[in-house]
Amino acid sequence: MSPTWLAEFSANPIADISSILANSFMRNAALAATAVAVIGGMAGYFVIMRRLVFAGEALSHVAFTAAMGSLLLGFDPLMGVFVITVAVAAGVASVARTTPSYDVPLGITLAWVLGLGALLLTIYTSSSSGSANGAGGINALFGSVLGIDGRDALIAAAVAVAGIVLLMVIARPLLFASLDPVVAGVRGVPGRLVSVVFLMILAASVTEAVQVVGALLTLALLVMPAAIATRWAVRPSRAILLAIAVGLLITWSGLTLGYYLPYPVSFFITTLGFGLYVLTRAAEMLGRLKAARA
User: Fold this and answer.
1) Nearest to 225 by CA among 233, 26, 201
2) For the segment 128-142, what is each residue's pLDDT rounded down to a tens digit?
3) What DSSP element (H or E) covers 261?
4) Is 263 helix (H, G, I), strand (E, B) or coil?
5) For residues 293 and 131, what is the distance between their CA atoms, to the nearest angstrom?
6) Contact criterion met (CB below 8 Å) for 126 and 201
């Protein structure tokens, strides 16, 4: 089932929420978006701390190429994206063992993956299956959260739960290694192993975010909430909780707007996140101006 965008706001917000959740496609979308917002908020904090924004962007392009390849070969797109993206993350982490960062191996991977993705998209859209269902490439690029079925929504929730558990297990050594890798190494923290595990969790988070906002906009849920949260909270625990809250706010608001208005949910989510970030920076500037004048 897909939205008709004929719904109208009422004077009763509880009735509006009940009306929205009465639709199975909205319940599926809410479950998937909530899962992505939570894991994205948690992983996003460490993405900011470890300066892995480029890694998230590169993995999102890997996810797009994996989605196109899965569609072309007739495989399940979600499972194909998950397996390939996580495998690439593990491979990049292995190649990067002797380098101080992931930038070089990721940059090389990204350059090749973009070319491969363009080839697969061309082949897919020119094939009989692609011409009959050309929306597959668009959905991979920009997301299709309102078209997620119950199975994919449950998979998103399961992956999020697994990622959250793993992040909680490695959170302390990961934070230690992020703040001071030299001292962490001296103290016996397995920094390389922790980094590899986190990069694989990041790949899984990217896979789920692709369903909601698409491959081109995954950073909206991986970076924006955490970037906002780190401006308001210093303590890691508070920053992570705030990042999750911001992620939930923009995803739920984006879903609600997408239900009532005939425009992409990904547009609303990214616009709300960007707006909150701009307001946050503006508030910081005003605070500094007031402090300078005092």
Assistant:
1) 233
2) 554 445 555 555 655
3) none
4) coil
5) 63
6) no
Structure tokens at 181: 């890798």
Which two tokens mark 142? 């920009």
* Residue type at position 190: P
Up-side HSE of residue 125: CA atoms within 13 Å toward CB? 11
Distance CA 98, CA 93 (A): 10
Backbone angles phi, psi at 11, to 5 degrees: -80, -5
Position 1 scores a pLDDT of 43
150 or 137, higher pLDDT: 150
| C-alpha distance across the termini of the chain, in Å | 58
Ordered structural domains, the chain, with CATH: 15-293 (1.10.3470.10)
Residue 52 main-chain phi, psi, to 5 deg: -110, 30
On the CB side of 60, CA atoms within 13 Å amount to: 25
- Give me the helices (H) in the chain, please: 13-21, 24-49, 53-73, 77-95, 103-126, 128-132, 135-142, 150-179, 181-186, 191-213, 219-222, 224-232, 236-260, 265-293
Specify the pTM. Answer: 0.81
Do 59 and 184 contact (CB within 8 A), yes or no?
no
Range 228-253 burial, b when 16+ CB lie within 10 A, else e: bbbeebeebeebbbbbbbbbbbbbbe
pLDDT class of 2 with cuts at 50, 70, 90? very low
The letter for the amino acid at 98 is T
CA atoms within 13 A on the CB side of 201: 31
Ranked by mean pLDDT, which of 38-52, 115-129, 136-150, 192-206 comes out on top? 38-52
Residue with tokens 């008709």: 4
Comparing C-alpha atoms, which of 56, 173, 155 is closest to residue 106?
A: 56
Give CA–CA dist 187/226, Å, rounded.
28
